């Protein structure tokens, strides 16, 4: 039992002991492919975050090892991702100037805060909180972030400078500067962009026509960005494009990152905390949804609370090794999975691959145009943009549509943190509003069964002196008054009523406010000589009701089933009328 | 129809046209009694709010007339009340020094903001928002406010100065100053306090022993505070107590308030807005609950959204006539009701009575000791203090107890606004948490019926290849993942299952996130050759489901009743087994 507990905190122990040679080969192969994909991504996302390119590489080393030790997904590929890089730029851009030392220090601090918050959530088992981000909110947020990221990178393609935190500012800045477009930069950026778009759909079929298998062709087509990098770097070197105003990556210090303790500046700490929480939650949700999807395909499981610890450890590792906030990336994890990764060892091998790149390949990156990296980002994030959720939610339910569109619009117009906050608020508020004005149905017996359904939707049997009312919600403070008013309204309409049976099939809770409401309903009905009954009260609810005085005051009964209740009342009526037949109509 | 719409905005039109002589006499009598009660209250609550006494009187004139025109309660007595006066002191104390002109201007502005907020809520029909203040939150808040108010008034009884916004600060300040107690003040304050406590329980029986009727004795006992005022004023005048350090009310300008437009200082406006919202909501909830209680006794009705307009108009009137925020008061409204008030005309007559007092009686109030007013407040608010809710909620449900105790403690330790905010947040968070981890029950057939109940609580019939699962909550984003995991868990435990029927009696909603979860449940069960069925899906839910692709993908069926579903599956099994008997156990 103790070993099991230790294993649950160190998932690496579940697979490392019986690690096989076959597995090693599979993992190594996947690691090679992911490394080739991750090098341009690391550089590009560091650019997006406004950080020097080597920080992207550093964020792709130790964090992967930390996740391999603590994470529960077998195939998740942790590292820099687009949305978190955007959020990092936005958070640290508020407290430091891009390019300054304090900007870099803020990024490290942000990773540390984010890691500690994730670890704390994991230890406190608060993973369930992520459930409060609904699918519409996530979909709206991802689409809006994709648009903002793509637009923010256009400046690199055009060779101008333009920045802004929301779409409106970004577009205005771009339009103001568009006359200054550097044609050499555009001559690099546009072809790469076109090439990468073509690679997405055209390269794989072409390779297959050259005789490659489906899988090999798919893998090879993921090297598109690397081909773009090699081609444009050579072009930049050959034609000395840097002299013509094409911005290049420039010298990247080669070697591994030095381990260091992030500087804990008190004021920065406080200013970054909220952003760190947003980044943690968004990163966690993105990562867990990828992890779930991949795990389900192989009948494996991931444990959300341990995932918090895995991602927390990864971010703390990033903070101590010159990186910036990381999480599990979607595209990369799918490639890792498809390339045959079996265990998190693939992640460790990938980290080694990136380490080798940092040691030996950085001199070759000096001539890499930033426009190439921007094109890589644009092509990657535009695949996130998906407006179909707007149509789908519109057709499904207005509340889901409002949640999507609120998140989408606020993210575009006011930034990522506001967008998520408003989206979550809107979806919770709509849910609460709906439960505060619940649906109620007068029900009757479906002929030939003991089943009771809405009189307005089904041909059912009712009795003039019995009001059978189904309340379609738990009774709690937000709807207690509403339900009380509705019951009085129904009774006022029909003076023949002598019995009210509340059918409690959907009543999962009765809180103290609602109990007070039931007490006054019972009192008021008693004054009018109407009996109040309850039927089909669930176990947990009746357990609580039985401890209260309400049960003593209740003028009627609590029936096991609605049908039994109606039968009993009819039998009593028949008896008191000395054989008179009950008055019923279909 | 048009006239009805106008009448709904001006409820005065519903009764003023056929106003009778009998009604006039009843209303006049009630007005006289309420006026006698309201004079000391107005002065005392103005003292509590840190405002000059005449502002209490001004707040008891025009606001009553405005409410009589726009309010829907026949007997509610609007004016200064304890809790709102405390909240006023706390709000304007932040931006101005008590006694300064800007303090008074802030009070007027607060009344204006509060009135406009209430009017806005009323016009937008947002009265339902008040339902989100649960009974436990209100109870905790009222008790804590009562304690804070009573303690805050002790300084007047002791003749010292001590202030503080929370209980801890107040008590510390009192202890620091207690050595400076003015014995003359104490000699006035203590006897009045004792007298007023005795009046509450002892005066009525005494009067009845002298032959007065129950009702007359009850009414007369409400004049206790006035007797206290007269007696202590005479004593202060006779013994020149002001010279011995007893603080007196002093000169009150006589005459009616001058109408004026509150000064709209921009920065004050912004600082007071949040407080104005809190005051509006708390005042509204207090007033509506009194209004409801009294209206129910006479089978009348109040309309919450029109009440917002009535109270909004009253507060705007207060702002324009030198008053401060007002609302419907509990004790005073009950007296008005018991004294026989029939229409809001009683309120208008009360306003006239207070006007006469302001014109002719203010010179007599100059010698009134502040200790007397403080004693009036203490006795009034201690009746609000009721700790029984703690015990009641503890015995009922932990979530209600947490809501009560959070509100109570935070109000005591951090002030009224924080207390209400934390209470509402806690009760909503607890409710959401509960719905995010819903109860689910495996159910079976109660023998001899078509009713299905929890296998753990009832002796029921189950079938080894059918999992009948009742989900006791609407399916929405916060619980979709939880429910999905639980279903997989149940299936893993039992490999004989071939059919899962989700009994949807408590499913009042399926949102887009939950629909996605159902899709993946259906997919995963299909992969394991298990059919997914739904039963007893409610009308509104099935209407939406029928528009989706989920219905097309669903491997099983949607059954009208759970029983019909089980029967159908058993019949199919029997057929496919060529007459084999179904495998069932009790």
What does this structure look like?
The structure is a homodimer of 586-residue chains. Mean pLDDT of chain A is 91; it is low at 579-586. Chain A folds into two domains: 2-405, no CATH class; 440-585, STAS domain (Transcription Regulator spoIIAA, 2-Layer Sandwich), CATH 3.30.750. In chain A, the strands form three sheets. The first copy, chain A, has a six-stranded mixed beta sheet. Chain A has a two-stranded antiparallel sheet with strand order 1-2. In chain A, helix 5 packs antiparallel against helix 12, helix 7 (135-158) runs parallel beside helix 18 and helix 9 packs antiparallel against helix 10. In chain A, strand 6 (466-471), helix 20 (477-493) and strand 7 form a beta-alpha-beta unit. Chain A contains 24 helices and ten strands. Chain A has helices spanning 2-9, 21-48, 53-58, 62-70, 82-93, 101-123, 135-158, 167-177, 183-209, 214-221, 224-238, 266-297, 304-320, 330-338, 345-360, 370-382, 388-396, 398-414, 416-436, 477-493, 512-527, 539-545, 550-553, 562-576, and strands spanning 77-79, 327-329, 440-445, 452-454, 462-463, 466-471, 499-503, 531-535, 558-559, 584-585. Chain A is elongated and about 105 Å long. Chain A is an alpha/beta fold and 586 residues long. At the A-B interface, helix 7, helix 17, helix 19, helix 20 and helix 21 of A face helix 8, helix 18, helix 20, helix 21 and helix 22 of B.
């Amino acid at each position: 039992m103790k070993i099991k507990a230790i294993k649950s905190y160190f998932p690496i122990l579940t697979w490392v002991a019986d690690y096989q040679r076959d597995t090693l080969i599979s993992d190594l192969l996947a690691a090679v492919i992911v490394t080739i994909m991750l090098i341009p991504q690391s550089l590009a996302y560091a650019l997006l975050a406004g950080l020097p390119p080597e920080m992207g590489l550093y964020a792709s080393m130790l964090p992967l090892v930390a996740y391999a030790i603590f994470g529960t997904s077998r195939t998740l590929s942790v590292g820099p991702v687009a949305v978190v890089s955007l959020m990092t730029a936005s958070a640290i851009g508020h407290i430091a100037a891009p390019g300054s030392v304090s900007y870099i220090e803020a990024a490290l601090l942000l990773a540390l805060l984010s890691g500690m918050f994730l670890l704390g959530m994991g230890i406190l088992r608060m993973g369930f909180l992520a459930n409060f981000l609904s699918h519409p909110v996530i979909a709206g947020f991802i689409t809006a972030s994709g648009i903002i990221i793509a637009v923010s990178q256009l400046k690199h393609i055009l060779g101008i400078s333009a920045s802004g935190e929301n779409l409106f500012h970004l577009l205005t800045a771009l339009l103001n500067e568009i006359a200054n477009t550097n044609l050499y930069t555009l001559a690099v950026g546009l072809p790469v962009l076109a090439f990468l778009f073509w690679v997405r759909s055209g390269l794989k079929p072409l390779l297959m026509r050259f005789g490659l298998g489906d899988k090999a062709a798919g893998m090879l087509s993921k090297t598109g960005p690397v081909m773009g990098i090699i081609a444009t770097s050579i072009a930049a070197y050959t034609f000395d494009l840097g002299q013509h105003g094409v911005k290049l990556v420039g010298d990247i210090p080669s070697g591994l990152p030095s381990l260091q303790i992030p500087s804990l500046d008190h004021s920065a700490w406080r200013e970054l905390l909220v952003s760190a929480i947003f980044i943690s939650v968004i990163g966690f949700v993105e990562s867990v949804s990828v992890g779930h999807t991949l795990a389900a395909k192989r009948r494996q499981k991931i444990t959300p609370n341990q995932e918090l610890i895995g991602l927390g450890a990864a971010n703390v590792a990033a903070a101590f090794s010159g990186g910036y906030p990381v999480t599990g990336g979607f595209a990369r994890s799918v490639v890792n999975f498809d390339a045959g990764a079996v265990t998190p060892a693939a992640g460790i091998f990938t980290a080694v691959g990136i380490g080798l790149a940092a040691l030996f390949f950085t001199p070759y990156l000096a001539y890499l145009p930033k426009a190439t990296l921007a094109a890589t980002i644009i092509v990657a994030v535009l695949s996130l943009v998906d407006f179909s959720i707007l149509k789908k939610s519109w057709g499904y339910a207005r509340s889901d549509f409002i949640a999507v569109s609120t998140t989408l619009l606020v993210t575009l117009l006011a930034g990522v943190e506001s967008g998520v906050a408003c989206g979550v608020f809107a979806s919770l508020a709509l849910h609460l509003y709906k439960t505060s004005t619940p649906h109620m149905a007068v029900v009757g017996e479906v002929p030939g069964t003991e089943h009771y359904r809405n009189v307005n939707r089904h041909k059912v049997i009712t009795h003039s002196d019995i009001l059978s009312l189904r309340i379609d919600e738990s009774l709690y403070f937000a709807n207690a008054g509403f339900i009380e008013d509705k019951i009085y309204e129904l009774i006022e309409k029909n003076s023949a009523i002598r019995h009210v049976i509340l059918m409690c099939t959907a009543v999962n809770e009765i809180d103290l406010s609602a109990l007070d409401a039931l007490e006054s309903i019972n009192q008021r009905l008693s004054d009018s000589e109407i009996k109040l009954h309850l039927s089909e009260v669930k176990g947990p609810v009746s357990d609580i009701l039985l401890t209260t005085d309400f049960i003593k005051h209740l003028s009627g009964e609590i029936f096991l089933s609605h049908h039994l209740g109606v039968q009993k009342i009819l039998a009593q009526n028949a008896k008191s009328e000395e054989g008179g037949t009950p008055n019923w109509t279909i």
